[in-house]
Amino acid sequence: MSVTGAVVGARVGFGLARVLGRGAVERLDSDRLQRFDELLRRRGLLAVIGVRLVPLLPFAALNYACGLSAVRPRDYVVDTAIGILPGAAAFVTIGAFGASPGSVPLLLAVGGLAVLVVGGLVAARRCRGMLVQPGA
User: Which of 58, 66, 57, 61 is nearest to 14 (CA)?
Assistant: First the structure.
């Protein structure tokens, strides 16, 4: 149920940003922003799943940012649902086994969150490298 609510809420935030701000973003004249927007248009699937896997990024801010970008709405909803599942499972497990500090499920959940964070940081660094112009 929590995943369904999160996806519905994410879609509402995405929709608001798309309706209220996408036109302004399209009018901006920035090469870097246009490259980033095109990257999201082509690889929105991987981008959205990637940012959703990182449990440190603010959920609502990502909803709005994706709504302002060229990510396709269908890709956004599906990828949000897929991307939040590992973090949601880890947080539920931590809640269920938090009173048992040495339990295997708790240690696996905390380890899983650590892997998600480190993996997200590595992916963000690689994505940033794709956006930098040669010679810049």
Answer: 66
